[in-house]
C-alpha cells in the first residue's frame, strides 16, 4: 500500500482507522468499499459545521468561479475585509472585546507561537506559565508550554522558558491550585521569574477533557492583572462554538488579553488561524512576525459565511445546548451502569474516563468496527472523547451513542468471567 511504503511513521489517526476514505458529508465519512461511518472526531475539531457543509461550499465555489484572490500574503482583499467586518460585528463588539486581529500562519501552533512571542515582546519578560495537561501545539515554543511527554519527547532539545502550574482540580477538588501560584508569585525566593503571560485552555481537549471552573478562571484573570501578567486564552480546540458559545470563556465574564483561534475558524476545514490581541498590545513592527500562508482567502470566504449563518443569532447556540444535554444524559447513563467510569468535559466535547488507557483503546476500536469514528485523549489515552460536528442531528448523535453504549456493555460482559476465574 502506498501509505505504508511512502508515508512517514509519524502518522497516527490512520493507525486507529485503517481504511481508505473517499467521500464525506455532514457527520458521515465513507470508505472506498462504500461503508459509512458516523464521525465523532470532526477533524480533531476543525469540522464543527460538518463535512462539505453546503452553505459554506456554495460560497467557496462562487468565489473560486469568480477568480477571487486565493493567496494574498497580508495584502488587502475584499474577502479579508468582509471577514474582519463580520468578525467585528458578530463576535467582538457583542462581547465588548477591543481586540485587533493578527493573521498568523495557518495552524493553531502558529497562533500560539505569535501569542507567546508578543507577550514576551510587550512585557520584556521571558517566562510563561502554562498548566498541567495543557496542549498548545508541537512547534518548539508551543511544545514548551505543552505538558504531554509523548509530544515533548519529539523535540530533540531542551524546552525552556515555561513554568508549569497545576490546572484547576489537578491536586484534588479541595485544593485551590491558584493559592500555590499566588504564593510563588509573592515569594521572592520561590524561584519563579514573574511571567510575561499565562496560557490556559478553558477546557483541555487533548489533556483529557478537564474543565476549569468559572471561579478559578476569574481568580486567575484577577491574579494576572494584579501582577501585570498577560492572560492568553488558548481557544483553538474549545472555541468556535464547541462548548456552546463562540468562545469557551464567554459564560465567565473574563476578557483575555490575547486569544488564539484556529481549528474550525474557517468553518470548512481550510487552514486558518488568528491571534486576537488587545489593541494596546499591538506593538509589532511591520513584518516582524509573518507567514507565507497567512492570507488564505478561501478560508476567509468560508469563515465569513459560517459566522453569518451560525452566529448572527442564538439559534445555533440553542442547538448546541440541546445536543450537549443529550450527550451528557447518555454518557451519564453509561457511567451509571458501570461505576468504574465517569463523565468529563463540557458542551460537545465530553467523554468517558476509563480506569486505564488500554480499556479506552479497546472501546474505540470496538466502536470503529461498528462504524463510529472516535478517539481518545488524556495523559494515558484513558478518555473516550466524543467530538462530533456541532451540526449533528439528535438522531445521528443517538446512533453514535448507541454504538458507544454497546461497546462498553460488550467490554464489561467480556471481562466479567475473567474476574470470576481469577
What attributes characterize this protein structure?
alpha/beta, single chain, 422 residues, 4-stranded mixed sheet
Describe the model:
The chain is α/β, with parallel strands linked by helices and 422 residues long. It is 40% helix and 16% strand. The protein contains 14 helices and 17 strands. The chain has helices at 2-6, 13-16, 42-45, 54-65, 78-92, 108-123, 140-144, 149-152, 177-186, 214-227, 297-310, 315-337, 357-369, 394-421, and strands at 21-25, 28-31, 36-39, 99-103, 128-131, 162-165, 197-200, 203-204, 210-211, 230-234, 258-261, 274-278, 342-346, 349-353, 372-373, 375-377, 383-386. A seven-stranded mixed beta sheet has the order 4-12-11-10-7-5-6. A four-stranded mixed beta sheet has the order 1-2-3-15. Strand 8 and strand 9 form a beta hairpin.
The share of residues in extended strands comes to 15-25%
Uncertain stretches: none
The largest sheet is: 7 strands, mixed
Query: Average pLDDT, to the nearest integer?
Result: 96
For the largest sheet, list the strands in their spatial order. Answer: 4-12-11-10-7-5-6
| Percent in helix | 25-40%
Structure classification = alpha/beta
Shape descriptor reads globular
State the separation between the terminal residues, measured CA to CA: 43 Å
What is the number of E strands? Answer: 17
User: How many helices does DSSP assign?
Assistant: 14
User: What is Rg?
Assistant: 22 Å
Amino acid at each position: 500500500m502506498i501509505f505504508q511504503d511512502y508515508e512517514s511513521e509519524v502518522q497516527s489517526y490512520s493507525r486507529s482507522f485503517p481504511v481508505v476514505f473517499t467521500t464525506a458529508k455532514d457527520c458521515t465519512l465513507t470508505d472506498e468499499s462504500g461503508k459509512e461511518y458516523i464521525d465523532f472526531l470532526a477533524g480533531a475539531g476543525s469540522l464543527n459545521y460538518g463535512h462539505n457543509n453546503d452553505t459554506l461550499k456554495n460560497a467557496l465555489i462562487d468565489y473560486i468561479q469568480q477568480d477571487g484572490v486565493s493567496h494574498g500574503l497580508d495584502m488587502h482583499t475584499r474577502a479579508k475585509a468582509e471577514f474582519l467586518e463580520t468578525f467585528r460585528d458578530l463576535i467582538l463588539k457583542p462581547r465588548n472585546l477591543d481586540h485587533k486581529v493578527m493573521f498568523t500562519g495557518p495552524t493553531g501552533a502558529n497562533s500560539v507561537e505569535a501569542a507567546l512571542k508578543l507577550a514576551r515582546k510587550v512585557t520584556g519578560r521571558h517566562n510563561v506559565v502554562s498548566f498541567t495537561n495543557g496542549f498548545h501545539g508541537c512547534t518548539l515554543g508551543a511544545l514548551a508550554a505543552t505538558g504531554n511527554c509523548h509530544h515533548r519527547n519529539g523535540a530533540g532539545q531542551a524546552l525552556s522558558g515555561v513554568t508549569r502550574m497545576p490546572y484547576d482540580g489537578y491536586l484534588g477538588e479541595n485544593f485551590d491550585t491558584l493559592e500555590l501560584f499566588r504564593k510563588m508569585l509573592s515569594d521572592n525566593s520561590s524561584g519563579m521569574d514573574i511571567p510575561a503571560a499565562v496560557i490556559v485552555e478553558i477546557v483541555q481537549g487533548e489533556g483529557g477533557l478537564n474543565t476549569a471552573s468559572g471561579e478559578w478562571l476569574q481568580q486567575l484573570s484577577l491574579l494576572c492583572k494584579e501582577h501585570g501578567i498577560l492572560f492568553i486564552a488558548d481557544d483553538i480546540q474549545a472555541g468556535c462554538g464547541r462548548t456552546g458559545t463562540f468562545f469557551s470563556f464567554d459564560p465567565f465574564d473574563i476578557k483575555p488579553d490575547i486569544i488564539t483561534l484556529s481549528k474550525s475558524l474557517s468553518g470548512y476545514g481550510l487552514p486558518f488561524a488568528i491571534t486576537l490581541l488587545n489593541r494596546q498590545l499591538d506593538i509589532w513592527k511591520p513584518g516582524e512576525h509573518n507567514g507565507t500562508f497567512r492570507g488564505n482567502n478561501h478560508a476567509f470566504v468560508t469563515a465569513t459565511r459560517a459566522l453569518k449563518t451560525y452566529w448572527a443569532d442564538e439559534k445555533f447556540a440553542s442547538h448546541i445546548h440541546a445536543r450537549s444535554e443529550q450527550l451528557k444524559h447518555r454518557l451519564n447513563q453509561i457511567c451509571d451502569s458501570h461505576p468504574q467510569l465517569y463523565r468529563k468535559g463540557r458542551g460537545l466535547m465530553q467523554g468517558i474516563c476509563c480506569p486505564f488507557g488500554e480499556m479506552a483503546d479497546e472501546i474505540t476500536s470496538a466502536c470503529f468496527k461498528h462504524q463510529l469514528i472516535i478517539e481518545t485523549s488524556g495523559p494515558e489515552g484513558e478518555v473516550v472523547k466524543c467530538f462530533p460536528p456541532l451540526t449533528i442531528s439528535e438522531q445521528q448523535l443517538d446512533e453514535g451513542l448507541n454504538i458507544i453504549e454497546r461497546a462498553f456493555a460488550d467490554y464489561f460482559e467480556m471481562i466479567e468471567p475473567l474476574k470470576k476465574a481469577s
